[in-house]
Amino acid sequence: MRVTRRDFMRLSAGATAGLFIGSELGWPAPAAAVPLAVGLSDPALQPKFVNHVANALDPSFGFRGNNDKYRIDIGPGVQYTGLLGPDGTPVPTRVFGYGQSGSYTWPSRTIEAQSGRPIEVTWRNKLIGPGGYLPHLLPVDTSLHWAYSLEGYEHYTIENVGIPVVTHLHGGHTDSPYDGNPEYFFSPGWRVRGPRWVDKKYIYHNDQPAGNLWFHDHALGITRLNVYAGMAGFYFIRDEFDTGKADNPLGLPAFPYEVAYAIQDRMFKADGDLFYPAFPGDPFYDDFITGEGAELPPDQFPGGGPTALAEFFGDHMVVNGTIWPKQDVEPRSYRMHLLNGTDSRFMVLRFRVAASPTATTLDGAGAPVPFWVIGSDQGLASAATQVDTLVVEPGGRYDTVFDFTQVPPGSRVIMENIGGDSPFDGEFGAALEADDLFPDRQTDRIMAFDVNQPLDASVPDAFDPAAIAGPAPITGPVTNTRRVALFEGTDEYGRLQPLLGTAEPVIDAAGNEVNGAIAWHSPTTENPGLDTTEIWEIYNATGDAHPIHLHLVAFEIMGRQEFTADLIEQPVLQHNGTEGVGFRLESIVLGDPVPRDFNYVENAPKDMVTALPEQVTRIKVTFDKPGRYVWHCHILSHEDHEMMRVLHVGPGA
User: Fold this and answer.
1) Domains and CATH numbers, the chain
2) What pLDDT is stored for residue 234 in this prediction?
3) pTM assigned to the model
């Protein structure tokens, strides 16, 4: 097999162990920067820090329930993001969002729930227009393993039954029937129901401590498109310590000094519509199709598409549905919940004082200002950590406190992103420019905070980092060490196909011995016993970092260790019976432990972990509910093209 930029390890003749070959890794050189396509919005011409950001924790932005019962619809909406058309006037963006009473927003309105108090949600698919079922806003690649390619569903199309959806509560300690995993999808009016569909009403027991969860679509094979169209929102659980109220016992800032920001990246057409690449001439097509030697049959891909591409990086930064917004703040501490809701982008965040109160770039900005990280995905940290740089993986949430008394009154503070517009390999900072995809990078800044409001002295500013003390470590006896692995192979057309698999021979649910890369539809290999605690060793045999998410659980990140191995090519069965190319690991040799990197704050209950290349990442996790769940890479383009596997707890896999 030819060597491409994605090949990671190769068998070294005469060697006793495989070698990592670094010269073939990484994104193309700067000459491969993506030119601005005709008809697209130019991010350099869009306003920066003009429009005010909405706070997803504003009480007026919450969903309304009736006796802890909610009816939430998925439907079409029109939203103004701050984007300007070629003539300088605001242009609307069509979205698919969650809402009530026919009002659909991007992001969704927020759900706030109480720990230990169940709620019931009926999610209704209302993607129907006056003329019938709505077409998707984005190009759908039906060659993928997706909802309507499953056995018995092949005669369904979006045209004849509508767009399939299913909502996953990300971070929820949820019973299997209500987890929202990909085969539980349903079409408008529940006319078509996925093979695992159970009920219209979802029960969320909220039997977990306070935490920053979120919900988003998870339909098989089109998750990336449905989320990109707008199907995502915050879900907060409160408890007796983290109450969300001004008199909370931890002294945490409360509304209006507690804010929640969903950070995403997008590309737009000049008329305001969302743009998603899938055809020849589109950004990234040459990198992932032509450049990888893929061959797309014209009868299946007329005109060369639409085709899924392995990753997506937008050139416009969006916070709570507004491009490059701002917030006016008082000189006090603000609690900021930060969600990385992007498809593929690892963000590396810093806060810097701009050169002037009206600056829109980081030219002349001051040194990074320190802030506190007090929690992550599913709750408060064991202790607060002060940092000036924070890596935020796709799907990850971080609970932070920034003290604006550190900066001069009248200052503008810019939230900076020093993560590149390219796959993340764990490096950032000085090498950033060599990895930029866009010739006029605007994604180095996200939003601004203008310290221009008078201090309301009637509200105490009492945040004390010493008060942060999250849940105790997992103490159950470890019953198994499970060795799984991340691979990058190719599908039947030669397209890059990220895959999960095992790092050792195992017996799958069908009684077969398997080893190495496996596609989503193959029999289950991750089948922990109910109420058992396992250590998962995640071997990353690719050239990029992957954000790994396990449904159902919160886990501890134990550490990382270098490894080398031989990478042996083998076939991978595709969903349609054809074969692609995958790999397995042999002769694994463990190396040195990796010292803790303080830019990754991981001392909190996590459901996301960054698995870095050339490393084995260890997590400790207890499985305490039975049934069918999934684990996957949270690069949405990866999970849609097979980097996802069933996780079945207890018997019946």
Assistant:
1) 9-15+476-649 (2.60.40.420), 54-241 (2.60.40.420), 277-467 (2.60.40.420)
2) 98
3) 0.95
